[in-house]
Amino acid sequence: MSRSGSAAAKSRLRLVVVQALVFSLFATLFVRLYYLQVIGGESYQAQAADQSVRDIVVQPQRGLIVDSQGRPLVANRTSWVIAVDRTLLGKLEDRQRAELVRRVAVVVDATPEDVEARLVTCGDPGSVREVCWNGSPYQPVPVATDVRKDVALRILEQPEDYPGVLAEQQSVRSYPRPYGINLAHVLGYLSPVTEDEYDLAAERDDRSLNGASVVGRAGVEKEYDQWLRGLPGYHRVAVDSMGRVLGDDSIVESTPGDTLVTSIDAKVQSVVERQLAQRIAFQRTQLDKVTGRKFAADSGAAVVLDAKTGRVIAMASQPTYDPDVWTGGISETQLTRLYSERAGTPLLSRATQGQFAPGSTWKPFMTAGALTNGYSLDTALPCSSGFQVGNRVFKNYESGAYGSIGFAKALEVSCNTFFYRIGYDFWQRYGSDPADIDARDPLVEEAKEFGFGSRTGIDLPGEAPGRIADRQWKQAYYESQKDYYCELSEKPQTADTSDFVYKFAREFCLEGNLYRAGDAVNFSIGQGDTIVTPLQLARGYAALSNGGTLWAPTVAKAIVSPDGEVLRRIAPRKVGRVDVPKKYLDYIDGALENVSRVGTMAWKLVGFPIDDVTIRAKTGSAEVYGKQSTGWVASYSEDYVVVMMISQGGTGSGSTGEGIRAIWEALYGIEGETVRPARAAIPGTVPPARLPQFLEDGSIMPPVPDKAG
């Protein structure tokens, strides 16, 4: 073959190869298109549709909190909220974005910087704690809550001026305040979920929390948060390429939270709060005989318990705060005040977290300890004006003296020196070696048996344990503070260090661990380093009333679903039994009745029908170094326990006596005041007919027929 023929053949071969390659490519493309459009078309169409929808969380309505009569203590209301869609905001030019943020800031009465700060996701650069957004990236970000309706309507009516800005109504907490009550420390408050809480919920597949949730932080709002919070719903919306909503895709309805039924009686609570506030205000106008200054009366607390079950009927603390301050977010200034010592630390519940020396209200428990450890009902000891221990004389109140008396009279007149002798006697018999931390102390044992020095187990978070200042505690405290005081004692005394502090530091460094006779006699009358909470003291007096049973105080009675179904009954819970023979409890009971009839509380109960409503009481005035006395009255009947105290308020009956009497009059309807009116439907809460009434064994009381029906 010629050279020209060979070249032509090769050219035709190359053409065939190219044609085959092109055909192969077209065939591959055709097969791929067929797969994408026919075989996998539905799958890809679904993915494309999913990219054009957004999930908007629909927050559930939080459950109600009601009192024992069905009165609403915490409910919900609607609030206009202004939110910004960050997806659309991110697609605007910088100039357009700045202008939109400026317009929003003007309409919600904020600064552009404030609005920008709220739009930053928590954890991102520039985020500000408690201001940044902690929710879903596709959720419109709230920048203002509780705005006026006309402001919301302005945004709704001018969407072209506010692209991506939403105005909608949301549910927030409200406080109906039946009878004007406050109850802030019992109810608690809410705040936004933290990032850690949200992550933990995701790990546990807990769908009740989302990035925009609020959770309970204190009180029953925290203790029963899982029941109250409900389940969020989801609103799926179709959006365009700019993130603008085109229409609804689907809706999953949210589930409202459950109702918490409490043992609180709002009417009794109103009397307790009013009396505590009035007694504090009054004492601030009175002169302290010791210092010549007016009483500081800086704080106080009152507790009313059902003596037979431990249920909390009322509980108040001063100073207090407005629970509504947390709704919609709390400002830094408001939060600072709640923690401020100068303002009295309003966030602290004095009833469950305040710890104070009990003073003479301690003496009934010391009586029980003495009678069960060798002393008899016939014991008589001198009630002298003073009792010498070493080189110090421990005195009676105002140096009074009553001769040789028994336990009943000692309680009636609140004789310190009588109990000093008992404390000193036990110290000599069992622990005269002050360095022996294992020495027995019957009075300490009795105090612990009544539950002091440990938490009561109330269904409220943050309860303080109190303190029994026994030998073990003193040794542990010495070891923790020794270095500080020894170092202080070795330094030259300066102008800002008082003689007392310098002397105390030297003595503590040398022998601060020793449990001396002075510690024992102080303990016997509720002085020294022993401290209790008002709730602990009330629980102890309830045991005196009911024959020795220690209850875990409870606020909640039941959890009820939104449609009225009882989901959980919360029955009273026994946590201990005091091993004191009945004859001794009866003896103490009679002695405390005499305190009300002829003793230190009698002058506040003149005219009270004590033969019909027998009140037992014990007054107390606890001395605190550098401060005025703390006044106590602890009282009980066969039904209730009432305790009230005022820090730096003076003597027990003098500071709180009138308040204690008024509460008892309210509890028993004396002078025409009724405590338990007929139940009626209240707007905004679960109809009372659907709220079950619980008997103390946990069973449900049958409904009472309507007389009118």
From TrEMBL:
Transmembrane segments: 12-35
Record localization: Cell membrane; Membrane
Record-linked SUPFAM superfamilies: beta-lactamase/transpeptidase-like, Penicillin binding protein dimerisation domain
Penicillin-binding protein transpeptidase domain boundaries: 300-658
The keyword Transmembrane helix is annotated on this UniProt entry: yes
Keyword list, A-Z: Cell inner membrane, Cell membrane, Cell shape, Cell wall biogenesis/degradation, Hydrolase, Membrane, Peptidoglycan synthesis, Protease, Transmembrane, Transmembrane helix
Superkingdom to which the source organism belongs: Bacteria
Membrane-related topology note: Single-pass membrane protein
Sequence ranges assigned to domain Penicillin-binding protein dimerisation in this UniProt record: 58-247
One Pfam family cited in the UniProt record for this chain: PBP_dimer
Keyword hit for Hydrolase: yes
Similarity comment text for this entry: Belongs to the transpeptidase family.
Name of the protein in question: Penicillin-binding protein 2
